[in-house]
Design goal:
Chains A, B: GO terms for molecular function: monooxygenase activity. Chains A, B: It comes from Sphingomonas gei. Chains A, B: This is Antibiotic biosynthesis monooxygenase. Two copies of one chain form a homodimer. Chain A is an alpha+beta fold. Chain A has a single domain, classed as 2-Layer Sandwich (Alpha-Beta Plaits). Helix content of chain A is 36%, strand content 42%. Chain A has a four-stranded antiparallel sheet. In chain A, helix 1 packs antiparallel against helix 3. Chains A and B meet through strand 1, strand 2, strand 3 and strand 4 of A and strand 1, strand 2, strand 3 and strand 4 of B. Strand 4 of chain A pairs antiparallel with strand 4 of chain B, so a sheet runs across the interface.
């Protein structure tokens, strides 16, 4: 089955942005995407955003790699620096993927 | 903590739409949202879509209620009827939420 993520960790990040400093945000988001992809245990990302609302799903081999990314010095520094400027609020859920399905049009 | 979903089940639905039958899709999506919210164990939804790409997160009290929604006759019928018309592909991951964080601007 395509993209079976059973056994992976999903980090669900749901956010609403302020709209302030859109350029700074875009640059930081880009840098963080690239940095995340280099981390041990990184397994991919799905991301959609519209009208300031965003959902980002990042996938990790195990809980340790998800936690390591959360506490990565550059990631932490960017989060602290940007949080109050970029976001109205965010919510984050960490979950163990039990099963996956997928379907593609023939 | 606001919206602590620890212990809930998250169903992550990631999809790309064909763009065909947009009205039929919107009506069905609306009806399914309302029907889902009436199901036992329903705990909420987060949804963002842009340019045909969508991520919907639905939250459930336990695995049984997530499975019951998946196999709900009206939901199944709508899925079967609309799948080939509305979607290019979709992926679905079912996961146990281990922990939640949230942050709101002061």
């Amino acid at each position: 089955m395509a993209e079976d993520r059973s056994g992976q960790i999903a980090v669900m990040f749901i956010s609403e942005r302020t709209g302030d400093d859109a350029e700074g945000y875009a640059a930081a988001a880009d840098a963080m995407d690239r940095l995340a992809a280099q981390q041990p245990g990184y397994r991919g990302v799905d991301n959609v955003s519209a009208d300031g609302l965003g959902i980002t799903l990042s996938y990790w081999a195990d809980d340790a790699s998800a936690v390591a990314w959360r506490t990565h010095p550059e990631h932490s520094a960017t989060r602290e620096a940007g949080r109050g400027r970029w976001y109205k609020w965010y919510r984050l859920h960490v979950a163990d993927i039990a099963r996956s399905y997928s379907w593609t049009r023939e």
